[in-house]
Amino acid sequence: MVRQQWDPVFHIRSIATYITNTTDSSRPQFDLKGKRIPIPDSVTRAVIASFLRFKIICGDFEVPENQIRIIATEATREALNSAEFIAAIKKETGLTVEVLPKGEEGKIGAMGIASSFTYVGGLVMDLGGGSTQISWMVSREGQVQTSPAGAFSFPYGAAAMTRILDDIKAGKSKEEADKALAKLREDMKKKFLDAYRNLEIPQELIDIARLYGGFQLYLCGGGFRGWGYLLLYQSQVHGHHYPISIINGYKADKVHFESTEELKHIAHTANKIFRISDRRRAQVPAVAFLVNVLSEAIPFGIKEAQFCQGGVREGVLFQELPIHTRREHPLQVATARYARPSAMALGDLLLSAIPISMGNEPRSFPRSISTDIIRSLANVFFEYSDVSKESSSSAALSSTTTGILASAHGVSHSDRALLALMFEERFEGELPPREADYKTALSDILTPEEVWWTRYIGKVAMTVARVYPTGVMEEGEPRVKISAQWVAGLGRHGNKNGIELKFSVPKVPNDPLMRKPVLEDLLHVIQKVGKRKNWVGGKEGWGIKVKVIVEEDEWVDGEEVWHIEGQPFDVESQGYQSASRGQLL
């Protein structure tokens, strides 16, 4: 697979624009009485100052001015003095502002969601300050399908809903306010239901929702991300230890997503909430109202909500990428810079340790661990190898969440956990108590089956690293060949099914590399993974018996054919495709 080299992308933190107290801080284009006003001069000056600073930062990174792109969305498009605002920016900074048409904004926002996941299949929503949009999306292998009707937009943004709820309650008795809120709720439910019926949702998505208890809901926009950070906070306090604090890829099931009263209480009482500003905190009751309406309006309900960082900015970039680049798995792209020259061959070795399933085995390799994740492990194989033994496992464990791969966009939390756990096992998996607790929390994101396979693959990776300590494999002169198959007759009484893993080394008199002794010394490390007492969850948990064989063979110089049970074995022809986002089995 040809890898593309990309220049680094740097995200600069947002520069606040200060708004005078003559405007509504949640809606700066309205005065305190709710009357629509032009963008204030103070805001225009602050925006211009921010762009001038931004140009200097771009210069520091040697970004040519003709490659600076400024895109404006709804707030600028709908402003009373939009043309004057854009002209002032052009005059003072020399930068041209592109204003996205309303229809185009929805499509590009959808592309931002597509950029955030390797697969999308369900309803998608964007919650900004002034409006919310709803549509559906299926995104796989770089191809994105959305509703031919586009996205349906409603004036129910986080800030707008805050104003609506405040206005409903102002000057009314509780009974009058409750009646008005009930009417608003019914009006909103009707509009969302009408949108659902007119979105032309594929029957495949409807059938999945009916069968599995609701739609997958993919959420973007500041309003929903604030809700996601509240859920994340809830999962990290009072004895809960969710291990990843990256909002992109965070998931919440139906029960937690719809726990509106509990989240409103947290927003009201908590002293400080990670990534929640006072402005977002004030909008929580409005977002809670919207979530309640959604849960009641959407047929079959919501099974799971997935939060994403992607928006218009990410959508613009993703839209410009060719299909073959979109198709690449983000972890493979992110790890490519760390790959040694023989990373592809090392990946092939790891893949050859996974037995091919014929469909009749009692256990099989999980499809959730894709070829891309295995090859990503091969890419980072030797990162932290220069770190002391007491720190290398810890560094590898945190690599996908706070380390070298934390900034990788479009990676699910489960994929981050899979790679981190395999990478940590490659360094023998010995951790101090603090990191051991973190490893347990990462493992809890996955199924017991997935956790067991991370241990197995990680131990095989550790063995391969001992054979190739520099990560360089000389072409035509392999030091070891690996094969694996499902077998019966294992265990003390010969009544267990499991994996037979074979390491073959060339028969070399007085071998200076000591290949066979080195492998035999590590044999027990891999076999221990298959012992019942070491299964995930203990003796009654999940695991597979493993038998490891180390043998010397007579090899023909330069021979590239591997043999299993006397039959030629070729990695690619057996289903281990190197195409990105492919599955192993």
From TrEMBL:
Residues 329-552 form the RTG2 C-terminal domain. One of its GO terms (biological process) is regulation of transcription by RNA polymerase II. Residues 43-322 form the Ppx/GppA phosphatase N-terminal domain. Pfam families: Ppx-GppA, RTG2_C. It comes from the Eukaryota. This is Retrograde regulation protein 2. It comes from Exophiala aquamarina CBS 119918.
